[in-house]
Structures are given as C-alpha cells and as structure tokens.
Amino acid sequence: MAVQIAELDEDVVPESIEIRPLAITIGAEISGVDLSKPLSNQEITEIRTAFLKWKVVFFRDQPLNHTQQVAFSRQFGACTPAHAVYGHQDDAFPEVYSIDRDRRDKRYKGEDLRLPWSGWHADVTPAINPPAVSILRGDTMPPFGGDTQFTDLVAAYKALSPALRKFVDGLRGIHRYQGNAAVNVSKEYLDTLKQNLIISEHPLVRVHPETGERALYVSPSFLESIVDLTPTESSTLLAMLKTHVTRPEFTVRFKWSNHALAMWDNRQVLHMGPKDIINSEYPREIHRTTLMGDIPVGPNGKKSISLEGEAIKPI
Ligand code: OGA
Ligand code: MN
Predict the structure, then answer these.
(1) Residue 145: left if φ>0, alpha if ψ -120 to 50, beta else—which one?
(2) Does ligand 1 lie within 6 Å of residue 286's CB atom?
C-alpha cells in the first residue's frame, strides 16, 4: 500500500510554520503550529516537506491526548495497528502503543524488563511492509536523561566509497523480529514472539518511494545476515555497516520535554531509545502511532520478500 505523503517539493517555502534545523542533514524542530486541531492543507504540505527533507521533525509543547494524537497521525497516512508483535494495550485506541520506563508495556506484568528499548533500529523492519512513519508523543519526560537518538541512512549511504556503494546496491538482508534485550524473560513473552514471528528479506539499499534517495537499509537490531555471502563475509560486512550507519556525523540527539512530539521517517533514519533512564528516578511515558509503509524496493527494482508472518494491515 502506498503511503499518502506528498512528493518532496523542495520549492515549498514555509509560510505557516517555522523550521529550525538541528544538524546538517537530519533533524529539525518545527514551531508555530497547534497539533491538537485539524491542520490546514498548507500546514500539512509544509510539515510533510520538512519531514521528508529533515527525516525526523520535533514539536514542543503539544499536550495531546490519544484521540488527538491519532487524529494528527491520520492527516499524514493510514495508521497501522499499535504493534505488529505485541498488539495494543487499550481497546479504545488500537493505534496507540505505550511504553513506560519500567516495563515494555502493561501486558507483561511482574517482569523485570528494564530494557524496554532495543538498540539502533527502524521500526518493525522484519515486516514485509514496515511502518513508513513513527510518531512518538512524550507525555511525561525526565528533566534530564532519556534522550532519543536518530541517524541518517541517506547520509550514511552517500559516505561510502563508490566501489562499496556499487557492491551493497545489489545485496539483500534478512530481518528477523527477536524481541529486545531483556532479563528474566517470561514464557508468555517468548510465546508472544514465537506466535508472531516475522522475517523478511529486504534490499540492503532502499530507494525512498517519495524522494528517490538511496538509504543504507541497515536496521541493526533486526538485520541478521546478508544473502548470498558466506557466513564470515556476512558477519564481517554487517559489523562494518552497523558501525558505519551510526557514525556521530550522521546523527541527531533529541532532548525531550513534557508534551514534545517526534515524527520520523523509518525509510531513511534509524532511532535508538535511551538506556540511561534505567538509572533515573524520573518517570518516562511515551505513546507511539505508526503509519502504513510500502514494500521496500532496491536500486535494481527488486522488492522485498516475506519469509514469515503477515503484512501489516491498516486500521
Ligand atoms: C519507539 C522507540 C524510543 C524512545 O517508540 O519505536 O524506539 O526513545 N522509542 O522511546
Ligand atoms: Mn522504535
């Protein structure tokens, strides 16, 4: 299913919003807009354009409730179910996935899942059609610590030598959903992973469906091997690429405040949640919605292939 975000129009000069870039190629803070109300067409176009260009955009002081977050999200595309593996927590809001500091979510009660976030990743890349866009609302955020980091996969691709770019252009990778690093994992949690196993083969270089830019489609938490290479070649090249995509010059780090909102493009960035928050006395509560994405395509026009699990369906 095609995502309903408009083509990149570099000529759109923002009139109704202000854009403050945070790094050279990735991340911008947007102000001058109230996300709790329906947006004008002009505002939607300007936000879409900034979003495609800066790859992750941030808004501050937007106290939204679940209904308003879902309404905001739907102005940019169709919502996916809250989470392809874990489902949703609140039947009234099947689009909203909530995580707090102490627990992956409220469903695995009693478990000491002190690391509810995995490392660097794009959301649910093991799916044949991973969510294009993630929208994260920071409801109650710590005064310090708990930052989210993002890295630019287009910049990472461009920084490779022409020879290596040519090599990775034709490669494919296997993405598997294995759950997050956690201690004292319960049988219930492991059963959930087993019953919802998703594995896909994606191109290692993904052509962005809207901008046409090539991104190094390496999602470290999920990408486990490269097709057609020997095991040694695969693990060695993956180790190099996983380090390469998170080089500091490709990244931006967001310092949250209460009621801030981040909206990122999973087709061209990775993100990583905080681990420092485990040692913080402050709560951190976030609510995520994700928008439908299409099936990735490589530079050779070859699409991804599903190896296990269903495609994500809009709700
Ligand atoms: C997510 C995620 C990171 C964070 O919601 O998909 O990875 O900083 N969150 O909370
Ligand atoms: Mn994530």
Answers:
(1) left
(2) yes
Q: How many CA atoms, within 13 angstroms, populate the side-chain half-sphere of residue 87?
A: 12
Domains of the chain in sequence order:
18-308 (3.60.130.10)
| pLDDT per position as a tens digit, 126-178 | 999 999 999 999 999 999 999 999 999 999 999 999 999 999 999 999 999 98
Residue of the CA atom closest to atom 3 of ligand 1: 273
* Rounded CA separation 108/226 (Å): 33
Integer distance in angstroms from the first to the last C-alpha of the chain? 13
Q: Determine the 3-state secondary structure of 304 from DSSP.
A: coil
Report the nearest atom of ligand 1 relative to the CA of 138: 10
Contact by Cβ (8 Å): 176, 224 = yes
Tell me the per-residue pLDDT of 193-236, one tens digit each, with 9 for 90 and over.
888 899 999 999 999 999 999 999 999 999 999 999 999 999 99
Alpha-carbon gap, residue 7 to 27, rounded angstroms: 19
Q: Are strands 56-59 and 214-216 parallel, antiparallel or unpaired?
A: unpaired
Does the predicted model carry a pTM greater than 0.90? yes
Nearest in space to 98 (alpha carbons), one of 56, 127, 78, 70 = 70
Helix (H) or strand (E) holding 168: helix 162-169
Q: Which atom of ligand 1 is nearest to the CA of 118?
A: 7
Cα separation, 307 vs 125, in Å, equals: 13
